[in-house]
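Question: I have long wanted to understand how a fold can be written as tokens. Here is the record:
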Amino acid sequence: MRVSLGAEVGYSIRFEEVTTPGVTKIKFLTDGVLIREMMADPLLSRYSVIMVDEAHERSVTTDVLLGLLKKIQKRRPELRVIIASATMDAASVATFFDTSAERIKVSSVTESLPDRKPASITVEGRSHSVRVHYSMDPVSSYVLASVSTTLSIHKMEPAGDILIFLTGQDDVDAVVNLLNTEAENFPRNSPGLLVLPLFAGLSRADQELVFRPAAQGRRKVIVSTNIAETSVTIPGIVYVIDSGFAKQRFYNPLTDVDALVTAPISRASAEQRAGRAGRMRPGKCFRLYTEDTYCNDMKPETVPEIQRSNLVSTVLQLKALGIDNIMRFDWLAPPSSEAMIRALELLYAIGVLDTDAKLTTLGHQVAEFPLDPMMAKMVLSSSSNSCSSEAVTIAAMLSVQSIWVSSKGRQRELDDARDQFAVVEGDHVTYLNVYESFLRAKQSPQWCHENLINYQAMKTVVDVRKQLSKLLQQLGITLKSSDGDIKCILKTVTAGFFAHAAELEPSGDSYKLVRGGQQMYIHPSSVLFRTTPKWVVFHSVMVTERFYMRDVAISDPEWLTEVAPHYFERRRRSQLPS
């Protein structure tokens, strides 16, 4: 539109808003930010048209937003809602939003209203044809198959860049290293490969490399997670290699473990991936699975995230929006009652809900923070322990994907860099050391480079910390420092994450989750990986062949019973029961 960003056109994301009140007419924002806006403006009265894009991704916040927009339209029939999707079942969404048979009283709107029976519009894309090739037999390793397929394309196919879909950073790094090793053995005069990784935790500078054309005589190979499926479009892609897998979040309400696991993609996702090869010219998609697997084993659509996620933050948001009877909320795809009950139990345990499932004073405060409820509880608990300054720093550090650069074969260097800041109390205090060292280095990019720290992530941490500090001050809480009292900091971390407490097993090589009894291990990236503290609390779980605790801090049974006497009971030998 040839206007300055933040004037007529702006954007709003978590911890950052670039708009001008009274001037901005079009605003791009995440669905989570729009839901938070409803806390101050329940009917979204500032907007006349809301467009929800990429709705087929079916994230938790997208599903919640669709339910809330349907509720708002009953009070504001003049509000236009556009749901845009490449693969979503339009008929089911139209049925969900069809309120034409309901009687809605309209008193304040005098203009002509839109038809309350939704219209479905199909826009034919201008993508080119994509020829799909399947594996004749199931592959034993999609990592090795990705490498061999890339080399075959490079040897036999005309010019054109290659996009490989893998599951996560570890797989991406493995394929990048293998391809670079193979490329070193190419004949001197043959075309070379420019192999580049792409995943969410990559630095901004490294992410931007994938959009630049390769030098003449070289073929670009992008090795990516599913971030390239819908989030970004990379020019020049002619060949796609699809592993058939992706990392997805799954929550088990029986064990109370919320984890990222590698799972088969859906046919809808497979079509999205293949479509990336036909943006510029006719392309080819090489699927590392059989046609029989595609037709008979893959689900038509990805299971909505709302049906496989921990709902603690979702339930809190709905409560904060005044929706008390969440069991009757109008869902596009209803979540399980077990997950809903677990969420209510935890919110009650951390003091956010009272016995009538109403928000407490603490609950209203927790809802103000753009953090998960346990982390917000940690920040708010810091006031009584006189370490609010350290708590907002820890929360900011945990809000970014990773402060460390990708190892890319430099794992020993990365371990050495991390050890410079490591302390026996765990990752949270280690993060404090990194942040304070970053400030002492005057936020130097060179210092970050020398210590294998992601400079852009640290700049984000600084900005997030400022906003969290401002929120605390708005609640009347003054920032205080512990002045080196590590015990106060650990007690504050325990106050927020006591529901994620684990005890060392008698064998000494694993932990038992207090709530649910799941066997857990400390993740290799933790500074506590080679130690065995008796009690720990942790922030999140990662699942591969084991359940790994990430961002781990030492704890103590005395602290657990002190900060959550309603949750834990004392028993002999200072142990805590499930």
Summary: The chain has 20 helices and 18 strands. Residues 572-578 have pLDDT under 50 and may be disordered.
